[in-house]
Amino acid sequence: MFFEVSLWNFRFFILAPVIFSLLSALRLIMIGTMDIWAGLTLALDPKDPEGEITIQTVAYIIGGVDYYLIGIVLFIFAFGIYELFISEINIKYQDKSSILQSHSLEELKGKLVNVIVVALIVSLFKQMLSIEIGKLSDVIYIAMAILLISISQYLLHLSHTKSIKHKTSGDTNNHNSAES
Questions:
Q1: How many CB atoms sit inside 10 A of residue 66's CB?
Q2: Is the Cβ–Cβ distance between 105 and 84 less than 8 Å?
Q3: Is residue 16 part of a domain?
Q4: So what's the pLDDT on residue 32?
Q5: CA 66, chain centre distance (Å)
Q6: Cα(18)–Cα(81) distance, rounded to whole angstroms?
Q7: What is the DSSP string of the chain?
Q8: ∠53-45-47 over CA atoms, to 5°?
Q9: Is-contact 59 42, C-beta < 8 A?
């Protein structure tokens, strides 16, 4: 009995990654805000609206969005592992379809992968702003990267719609069996 209680209470060590993930998310959101602010404070050059200043502004803003997305990943991770290992968070006005709720590690992993892929897309977009195309192979590599990201996003979308249909049909089956 003592061993089982002790073993059960070891789950509270999960609080360390929860707290540090939340602090990291806060830090990344602050960095993203500073990045975006830096982009907004650059002086505009009306004589060259598509010049170097514009590219720097876009790079700062896209970089800030990238930091926000990584912060969101950490926030979803912290919330998900807290609910899975410590306790379900019951808020009076909580939405039943919240992105923050995870009922299994698989569901949490799927949510994290979706946000990470979006962060990678944003990061690739930022990197493409500074790429100088010198050869035909550079264009081909860029096109292949865009194609691979598009395919991965499409497959994630298919996976997401399949899981929604599975949940919906499961709810319908449970509802129909309850009526019988």
A1: 23
A2: yes
A3: yes
A4: 95
A5: 9
A6: 7
A7: -HHHHHHHHGGGGGHHHHHHHHHHHHHHHHHHHHHHHHHHTSPP-TT-TTSHHHHHHHHHHHHHHHHHHHHHHHHHHHHHHHHHHT-----TT--TT-TT--SSHHHHHHHHHHHHHHHHHHHHHHHHHTPPP-SHHHHHHHHHHHHHHHHHHHHHHHHHHHHHHHHHHHHHHHHHHHH-
A8: 125
A9: no
Asked whether residue 116 is domain-assigned, the answer is yes
CA distance 43 to 53: 7
Residue span of the structural domain in which 12 resides: 2-90+100-130
Specify the number of domains making up the chain. Answer: 1
> 152-167, pLDDT tens digit by residue?
878 877 776 776 666 6
pLDDT of residue 36: 95
Q: Which of 80, 66, 63 is nearest to 14 (CA)?
A: 80
Q: Is residue 161 assigned to a domain?
A: no
Q: Which residues contact 14 (CB under 8 A, 6 or more apart)?
A: 81, 82, 85, 86
Tokens of 76: 């979803």
Tokens of 136: 């035909």
C-alpha 95/C-alpha 177 separation (Å) is 26
The CA distance from 100 to 94, in Å, is: 10
Residue 27 has pLDDT above 90, yes or no: yes
Backbone torsions φ then ψ of 4, nearest 5 degrees: -65, -40
Q: pTM of this prediction?
A: 0.69
44 domain-assigned: yes
